[in-house]
Amino acid sequence: MHQLCLPTGLTADEMERLDRIIGRRRTVLRGEALYRLDAPFHSLYAVRLGYFKTYQADRHGAVQITGFQMAGDLLGLDAIGAGRHPCDAVALEDSEVCEIAYASLQQLLIAMPALLRHFHRVMSGEIMREQSVMQLLGTMQAPQRFAAFLVNLSARYEARGMASQQFRLHMSREEIGNYLGLTIESISRLLPRFKREGLLRIDNRDIEILDPARLKALAAGAIAR
Amino acid sequence: MHQLCLPTGLTADEMERLDRIIGRRRTVLRGEALYRLDAPFHSLYAVRLGYFKTYQADRHGAVQITGFQMAGDLLGLDAIGAGRHPCDAVALEDSEVCEIAYASLQQLLIAMPALLRHFHRVMSGEIMREQSVMQLLGTMQAPQRFAAFLVNLSARYEARGMASQQFRLHMSREEIGNYLGLTIESISRLLPRFKREGLLRIDNRDIEILDPARLKALAAGAIAR
DNA sequence: CGTGAATTTGACTGACATCAACTCAGGTGG
DNA sequence: CCACCTGAGTTGATGTCAGTCAAATTCACG
Lengths: 225, 225
Prior knowledge:
The structure is a homodimer. Chain A is of the alpha+beta class. Chain A has helices at 12-21, 102-111, 113-139, 142-159, 173-179, 184-196, 212-220; strands spanning 22-28, 33-35, 43-49, 51-57, 63-70, 74-75, 88-91, 95-101, 166-168, 200-203, 206-209.
C-alpha cells in the first residue's frame, strides 16, 4: 500500500484499475540511486519497502537533503514540472519501489475524480511539508530543529500504525544534520543533551522518545534551553 | 493572464471554458489578507495585479515568510491537502486577484488533459521552488542567499517580459531578511556591500543589477567573500 | 580480530544576531 | 511652509550559537 491508494474513497473496481497501471517493482540496494539529477522524468515511484533520501547539490558541491522517504511515500513529484528530476534519490537501505508511469496515471486521474482529488492532496501535502521545513530552517535554533525532526518522524510512524515512540534512525547523523541545516557535530552534541534532559533513550541509531509532550513543546518553540 | 492559462497548448475553445470558471475579481488593499491561517479552502487565487507574501507563524510568534507572489502567480496550492489554508496571504500593495473555485477547476481538469498536465506542472514547480529555498536556507551564507534572492527575482521578471535588470523591491528589508532566514540588519549591511563591489545600484527600494554575471556566480556558490 | 567509517568530544573561531543609537523619507496638521 | 512625527532603514558595538578543526573512541563488517 502506498500514499496513492490508501485513504481515497475508491471503489473496489477503481482500486483494481489503479493496481493495473502500477508498473514493475524495482529493487534499489543501499547506496544506489533510484534516479539521478537531470534524468528524464517518466514515472513516479511509490516506496514499498525501505528508506530513501533526496538531495540537491549545487555546482560547488554543497549538498542539501530535501527529504527522507519511507514505505508509503511517493517519489518524483518534483520532476513533473521540468520533465527531469531536479534531485538525486538514493536508497538508505535495500529498498523496493513500484513504478507508476505518469502517462498512465494521467489517464486514470481523468477517469477517476476521487483519485484526482487524492493526487492533488498528496502534492499539496508535499508543498506544506516543505513549507514547514522552511520555517524550521529559517527561524528555529538547533535544539528546536532536532526536536521538530524527531516529532515529525514519530508522527509519520504513527500515521502508518507503527511504533511511534520507539524507532530506528535510518539515516546517519550527518544526513540528519544536513537535512536540518546543521553539522554532524551539532547533532552529536544534541543527542546526549536530550538524553540528559530525560527526553530520549538512545542506543546508537535506535531511539526511544521518553517524554513526547515535552519534545513536542520544544519542537513547537517552547523557548529552547 | 496568469500561470494557469499561459503556456498551455489549449485551443481557443478550451481557453474560453477556462475563462468561464474564473470567478469574481477581488481587490485586496495593501496590508490586507487575501486569506488567513486555517480559513477553509475553496478556491485558488491568480494574482492579476500587485504583490503578495505568504507566511506561517508558530505559536510563539516566530514568523517565516514562505513566498512572494507577483502578477501571474497562483496562491493557495498548499491548502488543497488539508482543506484549510496553512498560512496567511497578505498584499504588499494594493492588488487584484481572480478567484478560481477548486471544484470547478477539477471538472475542467477532467475535461481538458492539457490543462491537467499544466496544473501538475505548476504544482510541481512550486515544490521545486521550495526545494531551492531549502537549499538556500540549509547551505548558503548570507551574501549568497541575498544574491540568490535577487537573481531569482530578476529571472521572474524576465520570464514575464519585464525589465529584469532594474526593478523595485516590493517587500521591506525586514521581509526580505525573514524570507532568507536573516535579520533586517544583515540585509541592510549586504546592500551597501554589493554596491561597493559594483554588483548593484541602489536607490531605496529601486534596484539595478549592474553585473548580472557576477551576481549569478555569487548566487551559484562562487565562494562568498 | 582488524580496518575503515561513523560518531563523539573538546578547544577555538567566526558569522550573524542582538541591542542600541542614529538617520532619513514621507506624510500631517498647525 | 515648515515643524513634527512615525516607521523604515542604517550603522556601530558586543555577544553567542553553531561551525571548524583536530583527536579520541566506537561501531560495522569482512
